What we know:
The complex is a heterodimer of chains A (538) and B (529).
Chain A: H1 15-25, E1 43-53, E2 59-62, H2 73-87, E3 103-104, E4 107-112, E5 130-134, E6 138-143, H3 146-159, E7 161-162, E8 168-177, E9 183-189, H4 197-209, E10 214-218, H5 234-239, H6 249-260, E11 265-269, H7 277-280, E12 287-292, E13 295-303, H8 308-324, E14 329-331, H9 340-344, H10 346-355, H11 361-378, E15 382-386, H12 387-391, E16 401-404, H13 410-419, E17 424-426, H14 441-446, H15 456-460, E18 462-469, H16 479-483, H17 486-495, H18 503-519
Parallel strand pairs in A: 1-3, 2-4, 4-6, 9-10, 9-18, 10-11, 14-15, 15-16, 16-17, 17-18
Antiparallel strand pairs in A: 1-8, 5-6, 5-8, 7-8, 12-13
Helix pairs in contact in A: 2-3, 4-6, 8-11
Chain B: H1 2-15, E1 29-39, E2 45-48, H2 59-73, H3 83-87, E3 94-99, E4 116-120, E5 125-129, H4 132-145, E6 147-148, E7 154-163, E8 169-175, H5 183-195, E9 200-204, H6 219-225, H7 236-247, E10 252-259, E11 274-279, E12 282-290, H8 295-311, E13 316-320, H9 327-331, H10 333-342, H11 348-365, E14 369-373, H12 375-378, E15 388-391, H13 400-409, E16 413-416, H14 431-435, H15 446-449, E17 452-459, H16 469-473, H17 476-485, H18 493-509
Parallel strand pairs in B: 2-3, 3-5, 8-9, 8-17, 9-10, 10-13, 13-14, 14-15, 15-16, 16-17
Antiparallel strand pairs in B: 1-7, 4-5, 4-7, 6-7, 11-12
Helix pairs in contact in B: 2-4, 5-7, 8-11
Amino acid sequence: MAPARPAMRHRGLGLAALLALLAAVAPRSSAAAEPPLWPMPLSVKTSPRLLHLSRDNFSIGYGPSSTAGPTCSLLQEAFRRYHEYIFGFDKRQRRPAKPNSAIELQQLLVTVVLDSECDLFPNITSDESYTLLVKEPVAFLKANRVWGVLRGLETFSQLIYQDSYGTFTVNESDIIDSPRFPHRGILIDTARHFLPVKSILKTLDAMAFNKFNVLHWHIVDDQSFPYQSVTFPELSNKGSYSLSHVYTPNDVHTVIEYARLRGIRVIPEFDSPGHTQSWGKGQKDLLTPCYNEHKQSGTFGPINPILNSTYNFLSQFFKEVSMVFPDHFVHLGGDEVEFQCWESNPEIQGFMKQKGFGKDFRRLESFYLQKLLGIVSTVKKGSIVWQEVFDDHVKLLPGTIVQVWKNQVYTEELREVTAAGFPVILSAPWYLDWISYGQDWRNYYKVDPLHFDGSQEQKKLVIGGEACLWGEFVDATNLTPRLWPRASAVGERLWSPEDITSVGNAYNRLTVHRCRMVRRGISAEPLFTGYCDYEYKT
Amino acid sequence: MAGCGLCFSLLLAAAFARQAQALWPWPQYIQTSDSHYAIFPYNFQFQYHVSSAAQPGCSVLDEAFQRYRDLLFGSSSWQPPEPTRKQHTPEKNSLVILVVLPGCDQLPSLESVENYTLVINDDHCFLLSETVWGALRGLETFSQLIWRSPEGTFFINKTEIEDFPRFSHRGLLLDTSRHYLPLTSILDTLDVMAYNKFNVFHWHLVDDSSFPYESFTFPELTRKGSYNPVTHVYTAQDVKEVIEYARLRGIRVLAEFDTPGHTLSWGPGFPGLLTPCYSGSRPSGTFGPVNPILNTTYEFMSTFFLEVSSVFPDFYLHLGGDEVDFTCWRSNPDIQAFMKMKGFGNDFKQLESFYIQTLLNIVSAYGKGYVVWQEVFDNKVKVPPDTIIQVWREEVPVNYLKELELITRAGLRALLSAPWYLNHITYGPDWRDLYVVEPLEFEGGAQQKALVIGGEACMWGEYVDSTNLVPRLWPRAAAVAERLWSNKSVTNLDLAFKRLTRFRCELLRRGVQAQPLNIGYCEQEFEQT
Lengths: 538, 529
């Protein structure tokens, strides 16, 4: 499974590669060149006409017919953020304006057309479309909802660059934009390694720069249970790495609100019945006792699916989860269930016989998951599950979302899941924890989620994808450079039109976008040899 | 004595001395016990022994005392503990340092002795070393021995350590050409190198991609060859700072100016230096390696290396000499004519040798020694017997161990890097592959093996800059550090994993963004700023 050691032994570059590199690095944002936007919008028209902006004379405000105004704190905060992203955080960088006749852009006027949704949470149907018209003396950003405004502000900020005199400059432009897929996620794993809240917030910042809109929070797993439950405090008291390695209700709330302000949904995953070793420490009798020669071995397997107490626990637990996490969806996991422990346990054997399951433990797994799905639907939540749940023929409620993660023939899996009428999220080709030498972002970029054999109806069921950064070898020390800009490749694939596929063009834009992230304080690693005007300073 | 004592010490470590498991790299000889002494920051001090050759005013040690004090206890001021807490355990209120030879203002060298003895028992808390460099190594070990109880009291166990490095050249290569590394990244790296007892910073300063070294004899090199002549350069002051910062940590700075290949960035600042490539009968506008047939080339090199020799005080310079691409030379009619005149036939290796030999003569006239990449040896350049050959290729032309055998059989000294290219990354705990390398596992007598003076972990910069340097380096480079410092018999991967896991958490505690080895946690995680 481990990626092959790089064939490249030479430590330097061949001459040809170097020339290609010089060609790629040389042209920086000249006036007529395509603006280095990431991800690429649906439609971009730029004119060679240049406008200048200055820190003190430029402001972002509301258009006269906007349904949202200064009382919308989501937008107020976004305006302040983007003003800083555009002009930089270091006030000393200010330089006298270049004495020339260029026209000044003084304002960006934002208009929300429909009910703004300013105080709501984003959801799977949120409208993120916007139009952006940059013209002297005022630019206009128009969107149906605040979510489109957030995406448009990001695009606007990416249009602005500093010319060789340091003057902030923008080309007159006309942009129409909306995402190709509604579900564009990043998975983080806070169980294999705990991630401090600051790291999660930083990730949300970078997600917004790349127009991601879902944080898939794989919050607990075998190794640790950092989620502090109000109903079952022992779960984290006993199951976390330490009492300082927990997410308090306040931490969770902070993450959710920070995400909301950036138009990002937070979908928590409480994976069961496998991947639950850490649950057992704080909840007695929840896990199946494994047997060795007619005796309990002292080790435990997946959640015990034959006890009423299990389902009582799950009902209460998911009731809490459904209140803590406002998103309509909860991820229930369901992957990689090991059957040996169930097989070893005589009571489970008895239950299997009584239910007529024979030796097919997948039926026991289905039994468990169906009850769990029922519990979750009674608390009015939708479910997302890993592909095994579908593969093992669990009866799913219509609308249950299946996440495809197994890399072998994932196109076939997409075909089957959508043929059965279920919505699907693709992750299989985007496991970013698998690292290798060189430019692996190119592989992520070349994937098209709809390149499988299926009808139009089927393809509509692909609601998006997620880049997954599992945590076995990742913590706060290396999370950011491992995620960015590699995840950016996935970000563009999920946002931009299907025909945006030129890897060469993507390389040029992504190189600039990487430097933009660095300038905004994200330690995004380099794509290749080269430099940024502002390097990352530790 | 060392061998047997070591077996014993490993057993000890496995059996009960939990705290010693935080040591990295593992000392040559260690004996520890469970009895321990309390240390109270409010009154603890580092002290020079009256008969020490180094005394207050010795910059290397004075500053080291301050550093280790801060590393151990932070910079806050400490109050005496409540008397009840003080009674139970015996206390140590100073580490007494005795350095035998003077030399506080010198630079470390390949010959520097780094041995030290550390004794912490009822009668002593004592660090003895021949040189200040040995004292630095001992201070690091001392700092790794101190642990903290859950109540916050510092302790050190009764311990005796005799320690010395297995190899005298333990290096780390950083590449500041493919990506510019801000000065702070370099200085921070030197700190972590000291924690790992590395003693050579191999500074691959310039290459095809950029020329950030600011030369005062040829300022155009940087002006035209750097990524940005204002922000992406190392000024004379920067270089001085790096050298002094390294010196204070017992680290040599080995500067590399790689020629005749890997020099594209030199071209714009010194027209005529590089070979014009031809396409058919015309110059194509592109350039190849340094032009070896012009007198002006050697005049330039004489002047340039005169500067370099005085800027970098280490006895050794690295002259590169790797991966010379012959295509451009082959295309150039002037070079073809020169080849004919010299009777080189079509063997461009002879032209390469011609260049390198002339360069070596220039540099040795300045009283410098040199290190070169293995191609110089492979291509049969005549080199003086004191040349050091650095082995970087894993399998070509032969396996790296075979290459070491060939180099040492020719009587030349060798450095190993081939299995330690840290820029090559893979999924999973690849530190193990770095750790299990045994540099002396080749055919040859003791005399031959003594010619392997050490090795270097290399972090080439194609995909590395200040955003990802630190987690990619640490703790992976630590695996190489232990291989180069510790006894040959220290090979147990499970023990290494346990110690390295703890050492990595200690690095986090010291503010180093060292990535995890595997699933788990540290009491103090890295906090994003």
